[in-house]
Amino acid sequence: MAKRKAKQPDSPTVLNRKARHDYLIEETLEVGIALRGSEVKSIREGGASLAEGYVRIQESPPALFLHGVHIHEYPPAAGHQHAPTRVRTLLAHKREILKLVQTVKQKGVTIVPLKLYFTRGIAKLQIGVARGKRHDDKRQDLREREARRDIERAMSKRMR
Question: What global pTM score does this model have?
Answer without folding.
Answer: 0.76
